[in-house]
Amino acid sequence: AMSTQGLPLGFVDAQCWARDAEEFGKKALRHELPIAQKESYRWIKAYRALAAVQKRQPQVTLVSMGDREADIYELFDEAAQDPSGPKLLIRSKHDRALEDESARLFETISAQPIAGYLHVQIPRQKDRPARQAKLAIRFATLKVCPPQGKADLPVLSMQAVHALEEGAPKGEEPVDWQLLTTLPVHDFEQATEKVQWYTQRWGIEVFHRTLKSGCRIEDRQLGEADRLEACLAIDMVVAWRICHLVKLGREVPHLPASVYFQEAEWKALLIYHTNKPLPAQPPTLGRAIKLVAKLGGFRGRKSDGEPGAEVMWRGIQRHDDITETWRQMAPRYEQLQERIRQLQKRND
């Protein structure tokens, strides 16, 4: 879960599964199976987990967001059954048939007039440098028909938003997002809002990269699946914490470290790195994050940029041990500081 500004808030749902080797090669039979027996059913299970949170937080609008893998008609039908439930924002994969339209979904939305332009920042990926993309925005309200063989499902009204990049760099595939949503889209402002929300989906890519490169879950050598799941649960929380910490450090580094670190945590950092008497106020969040990163091997040179997931992971592991040591030693430290203050008063 994350805010509309991209701040990681924690987890709503997590699922583990392994594909049955005996079922390999039976992909052609997937259309004959009910949705509950398909691997894609995980999207509906995740939506139901979010719906449970929505019932506890009716004053907050919760949106289930997914890439093209989540373009499942049964998922939209699930959301349509409860208007007060979570909303959907899904990147479309299937060029679906429309009611009372000779054209299909993609052709119809692409034929809509351009409502305006939106500039979004495309992050760096492997050999592709970061860039700013100029997106032409189109939107429409459409009635989408169920897939063939699923006549028992109803026709659903959805909002479609198309974001197509103009002037993409040579050799780069332009951004082309066909989005379907159950959220209202009546004007250009609402359409661009949904596109901006969809850009936050990259946060899940950052999280999984942190989980793999930082927590190194693929290197775990555990003999039982339940042990691997238990280890993964802990690693996921650590990976979320790293993502949350890095996000705060880059967005609001000037805030006091106490917005994230407990008193014992920031004091342990300063004692370890400076070996000087503790100040009355905590350091800035940006400084505290770099001190944690240095525990993981970050050098902090001008050319090094901001700390990455791997050094933060190693740093947090060491920081936890240092903090626990500080908690044991803090009472003696306070006694020593009080003795020093008494001697200073006596000398004065």
Could you characterize what this model shows?
The chain is of the alpha+beta class and 348 residues long. The protein is 41% helix and 14% strand. It is built from 9 helices and 6 strands. It has helices spanning 41-56, 73-80, 105-110, 188-199, 202-214, 225-251, 263-274, 285-295, 309-347; strands at 63-66, 87-91, 116-122, 131-144, 156-166, 176-181. Strands 1-2-6-5-4-3 form a 6-stranded mixed sheet. A hairpin with an 8-residue loop joins strand 3 (116-122) and strand 4 (131-144). Helix 5 packs across helix 6 (225-251), helix 6 (225-251) crosses helix 9 and helix 8 (285-295) crosses helix 9. The radius of gyration is 25 Å and the shape is elongated. It starts with 40 loop residues before the first helix and ends with a helix. The mean pLDDT is 88.
The radius of gyration computed from the alpha-carbon positions, rounded to a whole number of angstroms, is 25 Å
The main β sheet shows up as: 6 strands, mixed
Measured by DSSP, the beta-strand proportion falls in 5-15%
Structural class of the helix and strand makeup?
A: alpha+beta
Low-confidence regions: none
Q: Averaging pLDDT over every residue, what do you get?
A: 88
Oligomeric status of the shown chains?
single chain
Total of DSSP H or I helical runs spanning 4+ residues: 9
Strand order of the largest sheet: 1-2-6-5-4-3
Helix content: 40-55%
Give the beta-strand count.
6
Helix-strand pattern, N to C?
Answer: HEHEHEEEEHHHHHH
Overall, the morphology is: elongated
Distance between the termini: 57 Å
